[in-house]
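Morning!

As promised:
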Amino acid sequence: QQPVQSPQAVILREGEDAVINCSSSKALYSVHWYRQKHGEAPVFLMILLKGGEQKGHEKISASFNEKKQQSSLYLTASQLSYSGTYFCGTEGLSGANNLFFGTGTRLTVIP
Amino acid sequence: DVKVTQSSRYLVKRTGEKVFLECVQDMDHENMFWYRQDPGLGLRLIYFSYDVKMKEKGDIPEGYSVSREKKERFSLILESASTNQTSMYLCASSLGGAGAVYEQFFGPGTRLTVL
């Protein structure tokens, strides 16, 4: 049930944009996005719910295509602080509150 | 400030030992989770709990058990540690409720090495 993330890694220069994709083979109720900096705990970024509701970070945008069970995270005008590993977590339709996380996308922003 | 704490940042144990990893949250959250994180494999759910004395298996429960005697505390137990359980263990908590979706708050992690 683990979702598939792509790309596995990306290197950007400051100011460039990036898109991280998350795809599931199961029908989804919600998609969560987290960022983990090296040596630190994952930190919540955003939740996207079935039906279009979003909760989270004002400076980060994301989309959720319920029919395709896919979500994309959009990082625009990247800053050095955006570096880290991004994980998507998916929640199925059972409403069980537990997430299945992808393997992560390592984003490196260089000056 | 919300907080999830884990009993140790680093732990070294020997094969066959019984290992206890403790997690405490101060947010009165209903849900608590234990994950292990390995390079290239992401976060994999071991066990989770919706309430005191309640537990559910995640993706990889084999070799592990859990205990939740109090709402704020969730313990992960390795009954007989093996070298393939060397990993980073992350605890998380969230509010709960059927049909509700909440963010998870993570602890700093325990890096366990089994020799």
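The mean pLDDT of chain A is 89.

Hope this helps with the figure draft.
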